[in-house]
Specification:
mainly beta, DUF1918 domain-containing protein, DUF1918
Length: 63
């Protein structure tokens, strides 16, 4: 997985009834775009994320 600051991290729901989460990548702490990522989610929560197979990096738009 590869990301840059400003990309979006989309975490798909793994179970029925759980919401999907979308957040903005604020920091890339791994080498050459690798995880972990510091992410601010739409609810304002910030956290360090090691994305799993239920995650997708969406490139930022509007540059």
């Amino acid at each position: 997985m590869h990301a840059i600051v400003g990309d979006r991290l989309h975490v798909h729901s793994r179970a029925v009834g759980l919401d999907e989460r979308i957040g903005e990548i604020l920091e890339v702490r791994g080498q050459e775009g690798a995880p972990p990522y510091l992410v601010r989610f739409s609810d304002g929560h910030e956290g360090l994320v090691y994305p799993g197979p239920d995650c997708l990096v969406e490139p930022r738009t509007g540059d």
